Amino acid sequence: MLSFADISDTLGRLAIEVPSWAYGNSGTRFKVFGQPGTPRDVREKLADAAQVNALTGLAPTVALHIPWDKVDDYADLAAYAETLGVRLGTINSNTFQDDDYKLGSLAHPDPAVRAKAIAHNVECIGIMTQTGVRDLKIWLADGTNYPGQDDIRERQDRLADSLAQIYSYLADDQRLVLEYKFFEPAFYHTDVPDWGTSLLHCLALGDKAYVCLDTGHHAPGTNIEFIVASLLRQGRLGSFDFNSRFYADDDLIVGSADPFQLFRILYEVVRGGGFPNPDVALMLDQCHNIENHIEGQIRSVLNVQEMLARALLVDVDALRAAQQAGDVLTANRVFMDAFYTDVRPDLAQFREAQGLPADPVAAFRASGYQQQIESARVGGRAAGWN
Ligand code: LRH
Ligand code: MN
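Above: the input entities. Below: the structure tokens describing the complete assembly.
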């Protein structure tokens, strides 16, 4: 059995990208519950994200969503982020909220609407160039609600052409990650519903196109770690959107619904050379509808760190020997031993050794930061999915 000391150097290379939108208000179609102290603009979102990094050392970059985080001067915003000790991360395009996109965006029947969506993504690539960001993330709400509503085959042709146009604007050091989702908001078919469809489009585009795997975007019962292993084997796993769910795309705190699934996923990430690996971005994509935004993010990065530590503790030599010997139960026991290893005391010491609080959530509560932002952020409109 490996010890924590055997894996701490590798674990120390963990860097998680947090989503700017997790610091704003979010909810469901039934209700968006506001929270006092919620940021009113991207700068305040960055300030809150910087708290997560300061208390955990795990969240050095912040993903932006355009136009939710639109500013006049992105280079200036990048400089501001640096003053907070964080950097701007993945640029997320948004072609799912404009009235023109009711019947789709990059796969829309109308070439004028497709051109508008392409132009938006090209604008996002411009932001990447201004800020030195590598990745453009494209998630499409595109799909249909009723059989016959549109031609599934032709939509794939339109989508491929639109993606190729966007791809042609990428610089050599830039990438496109294409996120899939099996349903919602489309309820009959989605144009990028699964890893296979995303991979096919990425392979057709070229070697700067990668698949983004959002852990909440699969049909119940899907073996997500198999998809992770397969995409890493292809060298096309570009990024994760980590969260967890009990039912649909619940966007709950990663590891909260199924910590064992997170452990299995991270084991395949390590086994497949996806960590430590700068080519595989580990991002969060979550909504803290009822819990404190900042605490929710702190808990999230700690959950990833904890399950990654356990995954790194798998005695791979013993596991391999049992696998090769066909010793089913020994192989499973070796795997489970790592999962059942309580690494929390070691992690608390590990943090203290880096000058970080042993308990970052308690440290945040004791910091008074929440009270400070609640009294400072009066007036203006709280940020949300708009
Ligand atoms: C879509 C999604 C996508 C983002 C959005 C915030 O469900 O996962 O990654 O654009 O959430
Ligand atoms: Mn996502």
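Note for the figure: The longest strand covers residues 87-92.
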